[in-house]
Amino acid sequence: MKYTRFEIARIIGARALQISMGAPILVHVPEDIIDPLDVAVYEFKKGVIPITVKRAK
């Protein structure tokens, strides 16, 4: 599924909040990535974020 830039921003923002609140990280990230937002972007690029988008018709 191709996401709009708004959907991408919402998904990454929601996942970054989850990570900052203590949610487990779903992939092995490099040692230099420590910011929750950067971790969320890394997870998004790997395609492992368990968040779905429901679009209105």
Structure, described:
By secondary structure, the chain is mostly helical. It has a single domain (5-46), classed as Eukaryotic RPB6 RNA polymerase subunit, CATH 3.90.940.10. 47% of the residues lie in helices and 0% in strands. The chain has helices at 5-20, 36-46. Helix 1 packs across helix 2 (36-46). The radius of gyration is 12 Å and the shape is elongated. It starts with a helix and ends in an 11-residue tail after the last helix.
Brief descriptors of the model:
single chain, 57 residues, mainly alpha, Eukaryotic RPB6 RNA polymerase subunit, 2 helices, 47% helix, elongated
How would the blueprint of this fold be written?
Layout: H1 5-20, H2 36-46
Helix pairs in contact: 1-2
Distance between the terminal alpha carbons, to the nearest Å?
16 Å
How big a fraction of the residues is strand?
A: under 5%
* Reported CATH architecture: Alpha-Beta Complex
Level of helix content?
40-55%
Largest sheet: none
In the predicted model, the low-confidence regions spanning at least 5 consecutive residues are: none
Structure summarized in a few sentences:
Helix content is 47%, strand content 0%. The chain is mainly α and 57 residues long.
